[in-house]
Every structure is written in structure tokens, then in C-alpha cells.
Amino acid sequence: MFAACPLASLAPGDALRLEGPETDGVPIAVFHTEDGEIFAIDDTCTHQDASLADGWLEGCEVECPLHASRFDLRTGKVDAPPARRPVRTHEVSVQDDTIYIEVSTEAPNLPPGVQA
Amino acid sequence: MNGAAPARIAIVGASLAGLSTARALRARGYAGDLVIIGDEPHRPYDRPPLSKDFLSFASGAEDIALESDEEELAARWVLGTAATGLVPRPGGGAVVQLADGESVQADGVVVATGATARRSMAGAELPGVHVLRTLDDAAALRADILAAARDGGRVVVVGGGFIGSEVAATARQLGCDVTLLVAEGAPMEGPLGPFATAVTDLHTAHGVSVRTGILVRGVERAGGGLAVLLEGGEPVTAAVVVLGLGAVPATSWLAGSGVALIANGAVECDPTGATNVPGVYAVGDCAAWWDTARGRHEPVGHWTAAKERAAVVAARLLGEDRLPRERAPYVWSDLYDCRIQLAGDRIFADSDPIIEVGDVADGSFAAVYHRDGAPVAVVGFGQVRHVTAVRKRLVLPASIITPSLSPAPSPARSPAPAPAIVHRTEGVVS
């Protein structure tokens, strides 16, 4: 588990891309939904190299900014093509106004040409 | 849903629009018979990579499939069989006739037969001359491009649209000598307007020879290869010629059916995809939905429209009174390492575009068009995050323009009045 950012720095509707030693070389996107929930998934779309943190957040779904694939933030499941493989989800907790992330131990579903 | 759902729905067309309609129907709880008819032998696949990753051998046919491995639509697939006719039934719906002599009777029919590549040029049938629309087109083209890269042959691409530029970029990245011939002042000038010069710059920087204002008369054999004949210029020799001349709605099979078409052959639809034949809808590249802001039926050949409008058609078929909301149109192109994005409709702008980030001279920028101070379109080169932010606040022209015309009356309009589309700007989520 690592401290991602202060809760106050991520307004509802916003997303943050995290990349560093804590994320094991696979960038993670943290989303604060309009409903006040916080989710963390792999930041890279499983279809092609694009940052989901740059995508269109709506409810509990994010749409890839490039090719409009949609992922469910709760499960990582694909809700709309062209992506076919889910993104990993990571466990999120908020303690003392700080967002903490527990990185998934599963293997990431990275798009062709992108390495961890 | 309210009202009786059709017992059987036939979707004619097994590409993005057809598959998306089937998915949307099942997602909305439709439990009836679903028949999906496609003239290609393939399961649904994604077409945008055909001019990019598939063409460059970076991905294969399995990579561009649109269905996931565990997906189960519980549909009957009739593939490799073209629809040849449609006969409306008195109570609504129609009988779809197939090339193999069979027919499918359905209470609801979705016409999603897409479009075919335009080949209207002398010499289009010669070996080495290609169009690009289908998986089979792309497989044949990439074999010839690879051979040209190996032998040092020139690839000549004719066309100022997305496909022309994407094929030129991919062929160049595979090591070909590439010439791109466009009639306009710059490639992709139609969609990008004044920013199309940045596409010329991109191509030029990567070694593609871009020739603008060129009218091509045809292609003929020359020596062991081909020659592209120009209006008022020397012929350009080529090993491979790619014609990116646009697409024609694939609706000739509807001749005599009574389904109304507009002049370019697209199916004339109301703002929710209903045709003049009750129970028959059209979506995707073959359809021209009524466009309130333009005051006419407008064919829209974009990927996102095929996907998003399929959900509207599914909701109508099931008699739902709230339809999925409409979003501003969105298209993209990936050229070399640059992501080009275009959302909204710049024709509705009443002022010059404003560069909100970046610099056109650097090839990385986002430009926003406004009408009455509200953003109506955005063009981005390598500015993905900013484009998304603008897309979320784009205003749909129909919500700020008072239409001067109403849809032309059709003889047999679907009896159920079309529910209004919920506009994103109203902040309503259906």
C-alpha cells in the first residue's frame, strides 16, 4: 500500500495519473467520481497506448480519450469496444484525508507494444 | 421498456453498427430472437486499424475482433450471405431476402449494411490498384505494400480523406517511397479546415511527398508497374496505388423495397433512426438521420456515431420513451506518433477558432470553435487531455440553433411519435 495523494487534491470529476516505483512500472489512474467515490485502475487502455486519466469520466465509467472504449471503474470490465480485455483494478482506501492504493498482484493487461 | 417488444429482430449488417445494436438490445433486456446477417464471412471486426496497425502488421485479424472471448449475444449469425431485398409486412417489420434464396421474417429490422469503397476511376480494377474498406482489402493491400517496401517501389495514395493520410503514413513507416495526391489544398482539409496544413507538415517531416491541388484522371499499366495520370501534369509511376475516394452507402439491395433513400443512397431516417417503413430502422454508414441543426438528412460515416446511435435504435425498437443522450460527433486519426482528434461541428462556429493550448507551428495544439460564445467544436493535435476536457463542455448545435426547416413528411412514417433525444447539455442521464 502506498499514499497516492491528499484527498483534497483530487476534486470530484477529476483523475490523476500515478507513475513511479510504487506502481511497479505500470501507471495507475485514480478517479474521484461526481458521486464522491474513489477508484484506481491501470491507467493504460488495454486496446492501445492511451492514458485513461485523460479520458471522459461519467458515473462509474471512464471512456478512453482516443478510441472511446469504456471501462467500469468498479470491476475493470469493458463496457464498450474496441477494447476487449479488462483493466486491473486496485484497492483504494482513504485514511486521514489521504488516498492510499494497494497495487493489484495480478498481471496487467497492457496493449500491444507497451511493456511494464 | 414499454409496449410489446418485437418477437424477432433482424439486423442486416455485421459490423460495428450491427453488433452495437445487438449488444444494446440485449443490454436493455431484449430476450427475443436476434438474427444478424452479414455479407462478409468474418465475425465483426474493427475497421479503424485496417489503415493503421493491421496494415503495418502490428496486429492481426484476431486482434481487431470486436467481440470478446466470453461474449454471448445469443444471436443467430448468418455470415457470408448478403441481403438482396426487403419486403415490408403489413403489420410492421419486413421479410429480408438473402442471396442464398433463404429469407428472414422479422418484426423489427435494422439496416446496418454500411458503405462500400468508391472505385470511380479509370484503371481501378488493375492489379496493384487498391481500395480499403474491408479486412480482405487490407490483407491484400498490406501484402503489396510490404513487397513495395522490399523492392523500393513507390506507393501512390490518391485521396484527401482520413484513409488516404493513414495509409500514406503507414506505408511510409514500413519503409516505402510514398506520394500522397490530394485535390484539396492539404490532406484532411474537409474535416480539419485551416489546421490541415499541420497534416501536410507531419507527412513532409516523415518523408511523404504530398502534392496538393492535384486532379487524378486515372491509372494505367506502364512498363512493369502502374502510372497515375494527372490532369495537366506528368504521370506518377507507382508499384502500388491506393484509391481513397470515399464511400458509397451499401443500400442498392433496398431498391424497390419502399424504404426511402436520400440522393446519395443513404437511408432517410428521422432523428432516431426510424425509416418511412414502420419497424424498419437504419444506423451507421448507410443511414442519414434527420439533422435538426442542419435542417436536412445528414449521412454520418463515423465510428462513434455507429456505436452511439445503435443504442438509440435499440431503445426505439423496444418502445422505450427515454432515449440515450446524444453527444457531439467525435473522430480521430493516428498519424505517425500524433493523435489527431476532432469533435463537434466547426461549420456551426460564428467566429475564428481559438488556440487554447500549444502552437500550430509545433504540431501540437488544441483549437476550439465557438458559436454565441459556446464551444461547438475542437480540433486537437497531440493534446488528448485537453480535447477530452473540451468535448465534455461542447454544446450541441441543435440545442442553440432554431431550425428553419422541419423533416420532410414521408408517406408511411412510423406511427409512434419519436421521443426527444436527451441532450447532454441538459445534464440529464437516461
Please give a quick description of this structure:
Chain A is an all-beta fold and 116 residues long.
What does this protein look like?
The complex is a heterodimer of chains A (116) and B (430). By secondary structure, chain A is an all-beta fold. Helices cover 0% and strands 37% of the residues of chain A. Chain A contains no helices and 10 strands. In chain A, the strands form 2 sheets. In chain A, strands 1-10-9-4-3-2 form a 6-stranded antiparallel beta sheet, with no helix packed on it. In chain A, strands 5-6-7-8 form a 4-stranded antiparallel beta sheet, with no helix packed on it. Chain A is globular. Chain B is an alpha/beta fold. Chain B folds into 3 domains: 8-116 and 248-327 and 404-425, FAD/NAD(P)-binding domain (3-Layer(bba) Sandwich), CATH 3.50.50.60; 119-245, FAD/NAD(P)-binding domain; 330-395, Enolase-like, domain 1 (2-Layer Sandwich). Chain B contains 8 helices and 28 strands. Chain B has helices at residues 16-27, 135-151, 162-173, 189-192, 197-205, 303-317, 384-393, 397-400; strands at residues 8-12, 33-38, 76-79, 83-88, 94-98, 103-106, 108-111, 115-117, 129-130, 154-158, 177-181, 209-211, 216-222, 225-230, 236-238, 240-243, 247-249, 267-269, 280-282, 287-291, 296-299, 323-326, 330-335, 338-344, 354-359, 364-371, 374-381, 421-423. In chain B, the strands form 8 sheets. In chain B, strands 3-2-1-7-19 form a 5-stranded parallel beta sheet, covered by helices on one side. A 5-stranded parallel beta sheet of chain B has the order 9-16-10-11-12. In chain B, helix 1 (16-27) packs parallel to helix 6. The relative contact order of chain B is 0.13. Mean pLDDT of chain B is 92; it is low at 411-430. Classes of the chains: A mainly beta (116), B alpha/beta (430). At the A-B interface, loops of A face helix 6, strand 23 and helix 7 of B.
